[in-house]
Specification:
243 residues, repeat, two-stranded antiparallel ribbon, alpha+beta, elongated, 2 domains
Length: 243
């Protein structure tokens, strides 16, 4: 078999390879050209020839829809994950975000007019995940549903600053301390990656979704996460639970 290194294609016969080289626009280069491949320094007669080459050649961090070459695969991945190629809207207030995790962070923070926050999301996901595939079984006090809050008073003053009851952190104001106590800082890690051998744990659903979006464990591709999330967060979570 014959291999075309420029296009990363294999041919069963030498004649087939020669026909490809003679006829393919990717090989119609000229000594002087405005169309140069940044990855391999080849010149091409037309923009379309350059585009065909960059689209098919291996080792080229090239965005086909944008016709744009990037300096590394990492930079290409960041570009593909940006709002340029993915747009996700909050199902309630329709605010736009770059990806599914952005929508969940928005809801968890309580910034949405719908009134959703991380507690409501956690309750919803735990009811959905009855077999504890992505959540951990937790022991809770009856009647609290995980919403019990710790509120600091002036008694938290230690003579210098307001000190957290649960950790050594200190704050210059009582408001700052109570903001700390209302944050996820002291929440339990109730979420876990369901991928065998991964073992990553998270306090928030958004942390788990960001992990899956990164494709670091191979549970789902970034595009799959966005596609499922467009049909609702429950649909995306259901896909993670069922594998």
């Amino acid at each position: 078999m014959e291999h075309c290194g420029t296009c990363d294609r294999w041919f069963n016969t030498y004649n087939g390879y020669l026909q490809h080289v003679n006829n393919s626009p990717a090989h119609q280069s000229s000594p002087v050209s405005d169309w140069e491949c940044d990855a391999c320094d080849r010149d091409f007669a037309t923009e379309n020839s350059l585009h065909q080459h960059c689209s098919s050649a291996s080792g080229h961090p090239y965005c086909i829809p944008c016709k744009r070459m990037f300096s590394s695969e990492h930079n290409l991945m960041q570009h593909m994950h940006s709002k340029t190629h993915s747009s996700m809207a909050c199902p309630f207030c329709k605010t736009a975000f770059a990806n599914a995790s952005g929508v969940i962070i928005h809801l968890e923070a309580g910034r949405c007019s719908s009134g959703w926050d991380r507690h409501k999301i956690n309750e919803t996901i735990r009811k959905l995940d009855r077999n504890n595939v992505i959540t951990k079984p937790m022991i809770e006090m009856p009647g609290y549903g995980g919403r019990m809050e710790t509120i600091a008073t002036d008694r938290a003053w230690n003579g210098y600053r307001f000190e957290c009851y649960l950790c050594p952190r200190e704050f210059g104001s009582l408001t700052g301390l109570n903001s700390h106590l209302k944050s996820p800082f002291h929440d339990q890690e109730i979420y876990r990656c369901p991928k065998a051998g991964c073992g990553r744990n998270y306090k928030l659903l958004s942390g788990l979704v960001q992990h899956v979006e990164s494709e670091s464990c191979g549970l789902m591709r970034f595009g799959q996460v966005q596609q499922q999330a467009r049909h609702g967060i429950n649909n995306m979570v259901g896909r993670m639970i069922t594998g």
